[in-house]
Design a protein that fits this description.
Number of helices: 5
Radius of gyration: 30 Å
Helix content: 40-55%
Order of helices and strands: HHHHEEEEEH
Oligomer: single chain
Number of strands: 5
Largest sheet: 5 strands, mixed, barrel
Strand content: 15-25%
Strand order of the largest sheet: 1-2-3-5-4
């Protein structure tokens, strides 16, 4: 048993390396916190603590890191994510005008950003040219549109 306690730090180093390798693949900071807890166990091993105390110190440190350090780190990492919609997601809700009659099968619209899209209506009557529209969704390369509400309808 003395041999194991004398070389316990090697086991802690192996655990730290394993946890960091898993963390690199997962990116959720859970295994990083376990690695930090293992570091506390390794420090206890260098301080000649008995093996049972090393394990307890590592476990308590890992739980503390998971509960106290991980949540604010995750919030900070995700804080910079851009809520701005891009690509076709940004087109939903955009207004435009019909350039070629839009039916349930085909048609063409020009959006306010200048893009010209093939279009169709989900339901309802055909939309003649110059009808104001709003994009409801994008299905492939086709905009599903509806007549734009008039200002009186929006209020």
């Amino acid at each position: 048993m003395e041999f194991i306690e004398q070389w316990a730090w090697v086991g802690w180093v192996a655990l730290i390396a394993l946890f960091l390798a898993i963390e690199i693949m997962s990116g959720e900071l859970t295994f990083l916190m376990l690695g930090l807890g293992s570091t506390a166990g390794m420090i206890a091993a260098f301080a000649d603590a008995p093996l049972w105390l090393q394990v307890i110190i590592a476990a308590v440190a890992a739980v503390a890191f998971l509960l106290l350090l991980r949540p604010p780190l995750l919030r900070r990492l995700r804080k910079g994510s851009d809520p701005q919609k891009f690509n076709v997601d940004a087109l939903v809700g955009r207004r435009g005008v019909v350039t070629e009659t839009v039916t349930a099968l085909s048609g063409r619209v020009k959006l306010v950003n200048g893009d010209s899209w093939s279009a169709r209506v989900r339901e309802g009557a055909d939309l003649p040219p110059q009808t104001p529209i709003v994009v409801e969704s994008i299905q492939g390369a086709t905009a599903v549109v509806a007549p734009a509400p008039t200002p009186a309808q929006e209020a």
